[in-house]
Structure formats: structure tokens, C-alpha cells
Amino acid sequence: xxxxxxxxxxxxxxxxxxxxxxxxxxxxxxxxxxxxxxxxxxxxxxxxxxxxxxxxxxxxxxxxxxxxxxxxxxxxxxxxxxxxxxxxxxxxxxxxxxxxxxxxxxxxxxxxxxxxxxxxxxxxxxxxxxxxxxxxxxxxxxxxxxxxxxxxxxxxxxxxxxxxxxxxxxxxxx
Length: 174
Description:
It comes from Candidatus Desantisbacteria bacterium CG2_30_40_21. This is DJ-1/PfpI domain-containing protein. Residues 7-170 form the DJ-1/PfpI domain. The structure is a single chain. By secondary structure, the chain is an alpha/beta fold. It contains five helices and eleven strands, in the order E-H-E-E-E-E-E-H-E-H-E-H-E-E-E-H. The chain has a single domain, classed as Class I glutamine amidotransferase (GATase) domain (Rossmann fold, 3-Layer(aba) Sandwich). It has helices spanning 20-32, 87-98, 110-115, 131-136, 161-172, and strands spanning 8-12, 36-41, 47-48, 54-55, 59-60, 71-74, 102-106, 123-124, 140-141, 146-149, 152-155. The strands form three sheets. Strands 5-2-1-6-7-11-10 form a seven-stranded mixed beta sheet. Strand 8, helix 4 (131-136) and strand 9 (140-141) form a beta-alpha-beta unit.
């Protein structure tokens, strides 16, 4: 059985309006293989998902350190746009890439990675409404459900959430 026992994964959710499936499905896949999940957000208040779920973050995004995690996951949903131009989110993503960590984003959240300069020249995917934003930052948009380019994983929406989680598990095995 494939295991990523002890691998630490930071899930970054919006302070409100994260996409439920894009949080719970990859989380379930990663935990089933032994991964340890920590949830970060811009607030420690309970965050509401667009489909009614509620999640209590463990840490503030501003307190998360790239060196403490093996992977980071930017969860999508309409609220995730709060991180598109967020310096703290950009720094965490850039530091994670520099340290060779897995950096991933789903739905419209890949725009955060693009705006941080991490998708320039990289194959990536995004929810269709974000296509032009990715291309404008130099990403090679593929339209795939899940795209892996080196240690960066992107996915296009809730229909790809489980495969997104599986891609993160695969990347963590390396």
C-alpha cells in the first residue's frame, strides 16, 4: 500500500466561501495514505464552504512556515480570490517552491500561484474563468483536469478534486 505516513500538508482555505469538495476530497485522500493535515486561513474564525460545510482553521496563514510542511494546498471556491494578490500567500508559495516542497492549487486558486510568479513557463490548469489570468502571467494553460509540472500541481475544479488529492499523494512519495 502506498503511504505518505508522517508527511505534513498545509491546506489553505478562504476565510469564507471555500469550495467544500476541493477541501474535503483531497484531504480524505491524503489522510487515507497517512498524511497529516493542518488548516490555515487569514482568520481563525470558522470558515463556511459554498455548499454549507464549516471548517475551523488551525493556524493563521501569516504564522505558517514553508519549512514545517511537505506540501501546501490552496483550496478553491469564490473566496479563494482573497489570496490572489496576498503577499503572505505569495511568499509562502515561493518559499515552498524554493525548498522543493509540493505546491498545489485547485479551481481559481492557481491564480494565486500565477500572481506569485510561480507558473511562468509552467504547464498549468485552472477553472475556465481563470484561463486568461494564468496565460497573462506566462503559464502554459493545458485545460487538463489536473496538471503536474515539477513540484507544482494545479487542478481545474471540484470535478477533479479526488484526482488532485491523488496527484499530491504521488508527488509526496518522491
